């Protein structure tokens, strides 16, 4: 497994990479990728970190699992490759973006431009076996990504955390809410959104208002 990360992340996560659980996790992932079709492609597993340098970090969005169909997952939560049909959750994210900020519905579902502006698009589990949702959960990824959230909370200031849905909301225990901003809502999945728990949360405009108050450049969502 190639652990080449952007230098800021590599330095702060070096200790985590050396822990026994992480070595066991990497052994499991190597075996899974050798024996099965897994997503995202191996070179994109740590994409969230490499597109969003630690020193530029302003916003964290937490997802649960990568998309598990062919050609979808690219290492950024909720994001898909250019030309790929938008999954239902991403459609609802873009619909909320339209109504909140008047941004035209994007043609591409690739969220790389968000990441490059300082949005960490972090799935709690970074890999998955093809067509088997949740197949790499409870293997160690959650320990790793929890430690990332905890590190950000301890070592950064005034980060905006967007916690969408019950799973993400549980991560609030890892965040110092006295020094960071936490916005919560229902999940953008159709089940939650159609019951009124997603649309109208105005998280995109609220995030930018917070960033402007902090004299930071707002995100071009």
Automatic annotation (TrEMBL):
Pfam families: UDG. Its EC number is 3.2.2.27. One of its GO terms (biological process) is base-excision repair, AP site formation via deaminated base removal. It comes from the Bacteria. SMART domains: UDG (SM00986), UreE_C (SM00987). GO terms for molecular function: uracil DNA N-glycosylase activity. InterPro entries: UDG_fam1, Ura-DNA_Glyclase_AS, Uracil-DNA_glycosylase-like, Uracil-DNA_glycosylase-like_sf. Residues 50-211 form the Uracil-DNA glycosylase-like domain. The active site is at 65 (proton acceptor). Gene3D superfamilies: Uracil-DNA glycosylase-like domain. It is found in: Cytoplasm. The keyword Hydrolase applies. It catalyses: Hydrolyzes single-stranded DNA or mismatched double-stranded DNA and polynucleotides, releasing free uracil. Keywords: Cytoplasm, DNA damage, DNA repair, Glycosidase, Hydrolase. One of its GO terms (cellular component) is cytoplasm. Belongs to the uracil-DNA glycosylase (UDG) superfamily. UNG family. Excises uracil residues from the DNA which can arise as a result of misincorporation of dUMP residues by DNA polymerase or due to deamination of cytosine. This is Uracil-DNA glycosylase. It comes from Aestuariibaculum sediminum. The gene is ung.
């Amino acid at each position: 497994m190639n652990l080449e990360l952007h230098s800021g992340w590599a330095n702060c996560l070096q200790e985590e990479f050396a822990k026994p659980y992480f070595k066991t996790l990497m052994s499991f992932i190597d075996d899974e990728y050798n024996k099965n079709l897994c997503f995202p492609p191996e070179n994109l597993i740590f994409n969230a970190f490499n597109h969003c340098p630690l020193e530029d970090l302003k916003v964290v969005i937490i997802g649960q699992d990568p998309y598990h169909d062919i050609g979808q997952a690219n290492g950024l939560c909720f994001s898909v490759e250019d030309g790929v049909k938008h999954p239902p959750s991403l459609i609802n994210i873009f619909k909320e973006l339209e109504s909140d900020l008047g941004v035209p519905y994007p043609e591409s579902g690739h969220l790389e431009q968000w990441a490059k502006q300082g949005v960490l698009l972090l799935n709690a589990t970074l890999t998955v076996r093809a067509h088997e949702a949740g197949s790499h959960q409870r293997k160690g990824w959650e320990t790793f990504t929890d430690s990332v959230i905890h590190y950000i909370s301890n070592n950064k200031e005034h980060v905006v955390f967007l916690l969408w849905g019950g799973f993400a909301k549980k991560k609030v225990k890892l965040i110092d809410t006295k020094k960071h901003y936490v916005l919560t809502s229902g999940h953008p999945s159709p089940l939650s959104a159609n019951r009124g728990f997603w649309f109208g949360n105005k998280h995109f405009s609220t995030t930018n208002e917070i960033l402007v108050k902090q004299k930071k450049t707002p995100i071009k969502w």
